[in-house]
Amino acid sequence: MKRQSPILHRDDPEKDPLIGHVKVTRQDWLNMARDVLVTEGVGEVKVLSLANRMGVSRSSFYWYFENRDDLFHALLEGWEARNTQQIVAHCALPAASITAAACNFFRCFVDPSKFDQGLDFAVREWSRRDDVIRARVDKADAKRIEAVTALFLNHGYEAVDADARARILYFMQLGYHALEVREDMDVRMSRLGPYIRGFTGTEPDQVAINDFLEFVKTL
């Protein structure tokens, strides 16, 4: 599916009208920069190019950002809030069983409003060319794995086992997206029970499975 360009504030009927001479907002700049980062790579995230795409003067950029590095900083902050913090928050949700806890983790990846797959891998691609970004990605991965490890620890797993299972679960999920696996959601969900058994070493909690399947139907 072709990725759609972000709707500018001025073109969104659900947004309040812009006031005065303002043609685009700070969020418009960020949304457009994020879209270019994902579709074309960090090298194409240029102020003049972004301005041309939005039909505005590049000077308006400097109302919101000091320079291009400031824009990059904001993009990375958004990436961490959108992806890393979502995983951390979902792993910390109350769960009656390890099945329910694992399903909370999976919610981040079946709901595109919670985890932006394209953005995550665009930042990882960026990190291949920039050691500073690489360090930031490594830190984010460590924080995510720590959260998944805590998920297992909270359900009685020994520390070594919790760490290993967290890595299996996390790296599997990222690999699933990296390989761009294409499958019908019904087929994917039919494997949920066996996946839970493999990841947790326990028999799946069917109540938690059913709750998760109901959640998926709402998406």
Question: Would you kindly provide a written description of the structure presented here, covering whatever features stand out?
Answer:
The protein is an all-alpha fold and 219 residues long. The protein has 10 helices and no strands. Helix 1 (26-40) packs across helix 5 (117-127), helix 3 runs antiparallel to helix 4 and helix 3 (68-91) runs parallel beside helix 6 (131-153). The chain is elongated. The model has no long low-confidence stretch (mean pLDDT 92).
Mean pLDDT: 92
Oligomer: single chain
Mind describing the biggest β-sheet? none
Shape summary: elongated
Could you state the order of secondary-structure elements as H and E? HHHHHHHHHH
Chain-wise SSE layout:
Elements: H1 26-40, H2 47-54, H3 68-91, H4 98-110, H5 117-127, H6 131-153, H7 159-178, H8 185-190, H9 192-200, H10 206-217
Helix pairs in contact: 1-2, 1-5, 3-4, 3-6, 4-10, 5-6, 6-7
Features:
219 residues, mainly alpha, elongated
